Amino acid sequence: MNTPGGFGQYIRVPAAWVVPLPAGLTLRESMILGTAGLTAGLSVDRLSAAVAPERGPILVTGASGGVGSLAVAILAQLGYEVLAVSGKTDAGPFLKGLGASEVIGREQLANQRDRALLKARWAGAIDTVGGEILAAAIKSTESEGVVTCCGNVASAELNLTVYPFILRGITLAGIDSQSCPMSRRRKVWSHLAGDWKVTGLEQICQVVLLEEVSGRIDRMLQGRLKGRTLVDLGG
Asked: Residues 30-35: what's their mean pLDDT?
């Protein structure tokens, strides 16, 4: 976030930024997780502290992307029923393979802008896209539910009334993976290496060479990528 070198084989950074590799993760696994894994983990940590699996299903938006797919997998492993939202028509088998019980088309949520509240459908949500999708997720969350927010790819605007918050007691929790305290980073990475470790992590990862990165970024911006991409710098 604060220094160049994201595709470098080596990078020099302040010591205060560095998280020790936790026991239980290989370097390769830590790179497959990356910042997306940390963000998903922070989101699950915030949500699970207030919403237990028996409370009801959890919605995950942008579910076929990096943060969303890892959030789906972690929640499913923790015993949550996961409802996955994706705009990719072919994402169903991929998301159900990660543990989602149902896949919801993005348009089913995006067309709910005219109502202040919607029928309560889930106990909480992890949103990765923002905009109308986040608004609809909040409007359909049950009383005392928690919705986490970590992205704005759809929009940075959030058009809502206060009704979900004062009539249902919804909590909207922002997720900051850039500057969260080191103690929280280490806690989440410890979970990611232990009880939250995603089964079949390699299956949600595609490996590309450095010269292929530009094309991958183009596909990402077009909404055509699923899961995680690991860059092989060629030794």
From this structure: 93
